[in-house]
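Continuing the batch. This is chain 6 of the set; chains 1 through 5 are on the previous pages. Same settings as before, nothing changed between runs. Recording input and output for traceability.
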Amino acid sequence: MAEISNCASLEDVPSSLPQNLSLRRKTSAKLGKKESQILPWDRFSHWVHSILVVTFDIEMGQSIESIYPNNHVKLSQQDKTNICYLSFPDSNSGLLGDSSFHFRFKLDTSNSTNNFHNFHQYQNLNQTSKSLGIDYEIYNSKTLCGLQVEKNFMFGYVFFRQVKDKSLKRGYFQKSVVLLSRFPFASLFNYILGLVAVEYFSTGGEVIETACHNIDQWPLLVPGELLSLPILGHYLEVKFPISIEKYSLPVIYKKDLPSVPITLPPVHEVNLFKCLEPLLINMHLLWEMVLLNEPIVVIANIPSVCSELVQALVSTIWPLKYASDYRPFFTIHNSEFNEYSSKNSSPPGLIIGVTNPFFTKCLKHWPNIIKIADINKNVQLESLERSEGQDGIKTNKLKKINPIKLMETQPDILTNFKPFLKKDKSILKNIINGSESNRPCEAQSALLRRYFTGLTQTFMIPLERYFSSLMPLHRNIYPFKSLPKLKEFDANEFLKSLKQTEIAPSLKGDLSGLYKKFFNSLNFKNWLEQKKIEADKKLELLQIQLISDYDVNNWIKGKQEIEILDQYMNIKKKMDLIETKRVEASDQNRAQLKSILNSFVSALPEDVRAILK
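Output for chain 6:
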């Protein structure tokens, strides 16, 4: 991913990891009843919005040359403009060859007719309702919070080629192939796009049409299930994670080696170590800033560097969802540029990645700025030392620098943010020892991922415990009474309970101060809202189970018609929750509720029964 090379062949697509993993190949997936009814292009639109070819015209600038699948995609003019500018590097980096990066943009919701496709329920690109559509809602309920799709945002995965061409006025051939999707699978989609784009530059647009038809054969995405995804004669076997700690790596069976599985990087992660290596000494500072939704701008020289680093920063607080907006790659032409660069208001609490040097001036009022060079290059461990020889002539000598001192002295992060917690030096020592012993980059990344996950979980455990204390007692839940309400979250009460909790070594410092500021963050507000939703579902399920085991026929005796009708409507709502998968009840509970509904109908007068039918 994000590799830069001279004009690539198939083997130049982001390389697979040298790990052993054997999975049996599947050439087809079993289709459920719902999936067997899906129409042409429905599965494609579930995975991918469209694939575009964006070119550079000497007179018009960036423009969309073609969109696939043809005649089935609509985009607003603002979305088209944003996509065009985001599909090309926004700097004079002299980037030659092929490169991969990704961006995230907010959809234009001003035009309700701006459709995802023009013929299916979940193909409305700019839905103004709260609902994403049942397929996406089911996916969101099963996947990691950091991998959930969002109604008003889309990801763009870019394969950009720039080569010298004297036959063109500008002297360069510049073109991008862009895959748009709601799913945040940077590693997977950049790899797939690499396969498609390399063949496209060799053979033309028919290969993209073929790829679209291949994607239209993919099963609907269900986290935890092993899926077989055909693409241009290759087969990928992927199991999308339901846990941040346990997941299997995807494999690909290439068409020239159909019996040999090749392991790929995780679908949902960037290489954390590669991204954070130049900033390791400040890893705890970065974690706190992301946790508290501090405004952060990442300034790099190429889009692959800033896009991967922004994605890495967002993932450092998993399994907690980063609830603010973030833009892995952002340009001066984005529609929100004036809003983000305005000095008349405080910078918004989001993370953006940029490459245009102009941003160093227009965003200098942002409180947290990360400057980083190409992370694909080795960190320089030597510096020039001025010395005076015997003849009085000053010369430059190379001086070796300790890696730790280098990280401490590099001006990579410009911030006035004061961290609340002390650094955990053990993880820094472990990572540095790993680098000195040539520990594989993937192992270093896994070590960092495990550390950040543990740090976030340790921080959230007291909150989870306190929230559990807000739940009503089971004995206060009755079959045919309104559900009891949750107690309100009281920050002061939580902080009092914190004093009685043993603090983990990784959270040494001003922990109360960190929690106080966290309570004002969007990350906390989103977490609390999600916990309330989960609690409501749990209470609904508990009541459903009580109703299922209740002697309803005995309850009906002596009840007025209005009481029976009221409970009929109540259980009807619970059935709707089950049918739409908003509450995960058993088949037995579902059948029992249907039986209870029939009992209620039978107890009502005939004229009311006719209305209910």
